[in-house]
Amino acid sequence: MKRILLFLFAVLPAICMAQKPVVESLTAEYLTDPIGIDITHPRLSWKINTTQRNTLQQAYTIVVATDASFSPSKTVWNTGKVASDSSVFVTYNGVSLKSATRYYWRVKVWDNHGNTSAWSKPAYFETGLFNTTDWTASWVQPKQDSSRKMPAVMLRKQFSASKKVVSARVYATAHGVYELYLNGSKIGNQVLTPGWTEYKKRLQYQVYDVTAMLQPGDNVIGAMIGDGWFKGTIAYMNNWGFWGKNLALLCQLQITYADGTIENVNSDGSWKGTQNGPVTLNGIYDGENYDARKETTGWNKKGFDAAAWLPVDVANNITKTTLVGVQSVPVHQIAELKPIAIFKSPKGTQIIDFGQDMTGWIRLKVSGPAGKTVTIRHAEVLDKFGEFYTANLRNATATINYTLKGDGVEIFEPHFTFMGFRYIAVEGFPGEIKPENFTAVVIHSDMPVTGQFTCSDTMINKLQHNIQWGQKGNFLDIPTDCPQRDERLGWTGDAQVFSRTAAFNMNVGSFFAKWMKDVAADQFPDGGVPFVVPDVLQTNRATSAGWGDVAVIVPWTMYQVYADKRILQTQYPSMKAYVDKIIKKAGDSYIWRGGSVFGDWLFYRPGIYDFSEPNGYTNPDMIATAFYAYSAKLLSQAAGAIGNTADEKKYNDVFEGVKKAFIHNYMTPTGRIFADSQTGYVLALKFNLVPDSLKSRAAAYLVEDVRSRNNHLSTGFLGTPYLCQVLSQNGYTNVAYDLLLQKTYPSWLYPVKMGATTIWERWDGIKTDSTFQDKGMNSFNHYSYGAVGDWMYQHVTGLQIGKPGYKNIVLKPEPGRQFTFAKATFETMYGQLLSEWEVKDGIMRIHVKIPANTTAGLTLPQAHAEDVKQDGKPLTGASGDANGTTVQLGSGDYTFNYPWVVVKDKVAAKYAK
CA-CA distance, 97 to 41, in Å (whole number)? Predict the structure, then answer.
């Protein structure tokens, strides 16, 4: 007994400690310890870590202060103990925040088991410059040739830090893309700043903590500015200087000294600049030319003789009213890839293969004589003969020319461009090429990875890999359509169809919040939404169904995934303006005629002279009307979510009117959809436009079409994201699996079989004879068709939303007879959610993890409650129906086992060819 008591005394503290909740993962506006947010009421979120099941938060206390001591004199907000289960997006409501100030915050919580957490580790957020008057710096423009394809400009300013420095911040932006230096070292690790926005209305600035970089006495701040999206060629070959033809800098270094005084070192007329630097050409499409012989050693350090540099011009005509603090994640260098093969093509081209289609650039390591130029070209694929293929880049030269200075080992990577590539062709390299000479640097917006999906089928795992890399390659400050050719634009339709899958793979909350503000900024006066944002196409104010609907669908998706009500509130005027435009256009008929410019883009069609099989064509007006209904319904729901009950009813009535018109115009009494295409049935069923009495018939017709094509899809950009979803939602998950696992064209796995490492733009980008589709539009990194990832997460492993933000979770895994296991994890705003299932020796094992402060309903497919064991014990408190057994769960880790019988495909025989 004594030994038992001693053991209990030893382990009880550990048990109690393990059950005590820990508050962690503190974020402000999605971001960890952000610097430079210009939101006056930032929202604070945290997660609760505990080993105790069924844990819910019952109360919290937040303290915000101007230093980490949290002394009462420094405290600006103390909530006291607030009875609430809210742990996501709790809005700061203390004293008014000041510009350029760091605020520390911490949280304590109480749970439903009577436990109280310790204070969390302190986190912080730092404000930017709230007011235009906070900017004391001036816009400056160095003397420059404002013609096309000119060298980058360089600027510098020497100053003195005369006293002991407590802190120092740089606030900076540019017309163009910039790099900053302080005493010879690059400031920050961001690339391609200030990013891409609708510059005339929204120009981001960045904030950097440079306290540790300042030196006593003399210092030098310097900048290089390239053309970027602002001045460079963008949106096809003759569209350059869209926002302006002169590069400019705005830079404010704010130094706080130990005596409390503040000194600003501003961009002004005392700065000097030159265009005679080593970056002799740069462009998003062009690549970069760099002549190392023109490097000016020490230009960004003290002691440099800048007598030959010219004073800059102060540009008082450039406004500061459009400046906005960065609220999205920055673009960073994320990973590095080494060559997997170095070889020569049959025609003698020196080629390096990095094994992965990616976005970024090459880091070159070389030594050789001065004046020797190494040329690096970029390509996604090789042709059927093994030759370097760049025809699909169109007019994007995507080339690096590096001219050596000849003083030993030289290391170079470009400053103001990016390429989409897997292969490079190298010319002029002095000596033998070795793997250490070339490194591929992967860049993209640094979104936290939140989701992973894996299963027993290696090709599906490769598909998931390709989906994720398609997202990496195209989420570069904005959601681009492709990273390689002379396009790389923010196509609204592409972003709309992929946004839900994107939110599984990575945390895209702040990414889309930023971009959607540009969608609103670019919106036409009549409410229409351009094809691309930022709108550099200027297509006579045209909008297209499925593209313009991004204004409604993406904010609603972000609200669902993250419980981000503010994005609905912020975007609501834009959402409403878009739907109101369609209402006016459709009139009393409720049919949106002429509203679809692109139709079901890139739907399957056989060869132009091949009439042996039907194509996937869907009537454009029907597509437009379907999206009209969908956006009206989502707008009604958004209105309800933000408390606008009048609009909730108004737009629901609009939806009902459109639905009635859709049925009358596009449906037969037997449930057939006009045009009889897969996309027609998919949109009608997904958007709830089919009467309940006809849903089963319409779904059966869809299945009939799929089976008649021998389990092939025929959908394009608009139908593909919802195809498998609609099948599962109408009882045909087995057909969805057959589509997913189809390996011949057109299918998701055909590109995988052909060696794809990302998602292709076209179902047959590379044909079965290894020739290519139309070179004018054939990207091999184009994420739209990767939207099937949403179905894989939501239906294969069953991760579905019960209440916004996964506050309540619906788990409905739908195992397919083709898989023996599947697993998905997703980092919700509350913590990690896991669902995995495995069939082995006739037993189904389902394992789930539910994050603290949430609840879940788990449906065990084909399970009889009396046969189920939970954590090795008989299941209790469950309910059953035709789909299986459902059990309600609180947070925790659970495992269920029960006998498994493979259900025969009931529709296979009926619809077999």
Answer: 8
Catalytic one among 179, 198, 487, 827?
487
d(CA 701, CA 906): 15
Cross-strand partners of 60: 82, 109
Q: Integer distance in angstroms from the first to the last C-alpha of the chain? A: 75
Contact 601, 718 (CB under 8 A): yes
Sheet holding 831-840: strands in order across?
451-455, 821-828, 831-840, 843-850, 892-899, 869-870, 873-874
Written as six digits, the tokens of 298 are 């020490």
869 CB-contact burial (10 Å; exposed 0-12 / middle 13-18 / buried 19+): middle
- pLDDT average, residue stretch 307-313: 96
- Is residue 761 part of the annotated active site? The answer reads yes
487 included as an active-site residue: yes
CA 386 to chain centre: 34
Pairing of strands 475-476, 313-314: unpaired
Decide: 117 and 21 in contact? Cβ < 8 Å: yes
Distance of alpha carbon 568 from alpha carbon 906, whole angstroms:
43
Amino acid at position 138, single letter: S
Structural contact between residues 240 and 231, judged by C-beta atoms closer than 8 angstroms: yes
Is 60 exceeded by the pLDDT of residue 843? yes
Catalytic residue among 761, 814, 827, 836: 761
User: Residue with structure tokens 């972000």?
Assistant: 558
Residues 719, 717: Cα–Cα separation, whole Å: 6
Q: With H, G, I as helix, E, B as strand and everything else as coil, classify residue 488.
A: coil
Rounded-to-10 torsion of CA 484, 490, 494, 496? 150
| Chain mean pLDDT for the chain | 95
Residue 506 DSSP code:
B
Q: Amino acid identity, residue 626?
A: A
Structure confidence by residue, pLDDT tens digits, 479-495: 999 999 999 999 999 99
Q: What is the DSSP string of 808-866?
A: EEEE-----TT-SEEEEEEEETTEEEEEEEEEETTEEEEEEEE-TT-EEEEEEET--GG
